[in-house]
Structures
1.
Amino acid sequence: MSNQNMSVPALRRLPLYYRCVIALKEEGKKFISCTDIGSRLELVPIQVRKDLQAAGATGRPKVGYEVDELETVLKEMLGYGKPTDAFIVGMGNLGQALTAHKEFERCGLEIVAAFDTSPLKIGRDYFGKRVFPLNKLVNLAQRMNIKMGIITTPAKSAQDIADIMVEAGIKGIWNFTPVHLNVPDDVYVHNENFMSSLSVLINRIS
């Protein structure tokens, strides 16, 4: 089954299942049930079963899922076995933090180059990634067949950056700015809005 046919909430749960399976494997477990996974993740077992079935995993009656097999299915579904190269634009504190985050590589994402407009950053290496001038993005993206872009610029620049990424042929944008980006229908934008998350958290603890 293609992950494009799964609901967004289900896709968000798959990495949780994957990390759970890896932990179980490290504990020496050979088989696991939906009840076990649900208990560890505080999810309803029937939801776990539906998600795993949608991902293509097949359990055995009274035995459950074979851990190695489930790991393979989830890894393939999440695209972890086939690395996705990405460009990041905006090498401020957030951009540098994301570039340094090694967990992305374990999840199949590799930031291969960074871009900025600041003369103080262009030409420098951050965590092994060279910073190029923004006007090089289109040419490099097309030459390297880059399909994913990450935006960590100030809000006022976000739409301009998105336009450049679209021109470059990028089809997926991870947007860390609070700006609603206008892009063609065939370009997917995922907004990572810290302020919204913080507002919900503050509301809950108040």
2.
Amino acid sequence: MAGSARYTAILDACVLYPATLRDLLLSLARDGLFHARWSDRIQAEWVRSLLKRRPELGEAALRRTCELMAQAVPDSVVHGWQSIESGLLGLPDANDRHVLAAAICGHADAIVTFNLDDFPADALAPFAVQAQHPDDFLLNQLDLHPIAALKSVKLMRARWRNPQLTALDLAAAIEKLQMPLVAARLREVAELV
């Protein structure tokens, strides 16, 4: 796909690493609220980090998770970013160039990341890309598409069986992930999710 009519966001490895946040983002994307994208390198980065911390999860299980992610969100994996990565010199850390390269090649409007300092606005502006904290990004989704977003969250929570979480448990889990605004919103509408 050359581009998307929907708002498109590159999901950085740090937002794919926590299972709860990954599921929330992909649930909203699967339900058409935005177009989620990532590269194989971003995928490998969060998998490697998670296996380092939790080797008992197993590489095969996480490889399966990656396959399911790609199935849930069509046209999610960005290709061809490698050819422009080395030319992107405006970021504080050269190790983040691949994320911006994926955003450019993936026609993204935003990079969703906890690491906002790694993606300064002046470095992203020439490419019409913004860095957004997941708390702001998700709150925007809840504001822009309140009924569809709440339905998506409710369906996601219903899929969870082990452990099954109440809406307030989900809000607490989201707050632990440094997203107080989304947690507060979920508490406000707990009876709907």
3.
Amino acid sequence: MKNSNITKKIVAGKFKGKTLKLPSKETTRSSKGIVLESFFNTIQFAIIDATFVEVFSGSGSIGLEALSRGAQKIVFMEKDKEALKVLKENIAQTDPSSCEVVAGDSFVNIASVVATLKREGREAFFYIDPPFSIREGMEDIYEKMIAMIASLPKEAVKMIVLEHMSGLELPKEIAVFSKKKSKKFGNTSLTYYLSEEME
């Protein structure tokens, strides 16, 4: 199936209006505009000069929006080959020198991303948008995601944001991180986690 006409635009900031390609819906699922808008309204000033890690990044639309709005460095984590190709094309339209692509299994690669953050003394926003668990082969995705979050050291984390199916019950605490708020947008919800020192 040809999908060259599936696109979305960067909404605000220095790359506003740039058209981003999206991979086919068979491999990834794009975040809704209303979700993106709500998220950036929540973190609008905190994102300036920040490091931003987009886990399961697909086309990179969230990370590139963060870059456009003033984030200093974006780390994209993606496994799907088609999505990686589209992601790299999208990055080329913005500022490739501020972007790093970590290809492969995010659950495996998160350790090296965290090690780099710690070595550089950086805290990052982690935006985690896994494939919904209704997808074949993804039934245990949320258990793996919770284990991933529990493995994150608080000194490398500014905030953790999960985009997930609205019916999912997430724990109030995951290791040192506490659920601060959850916002529902139809079938999709955003849930924010912070460690105690960040409040």
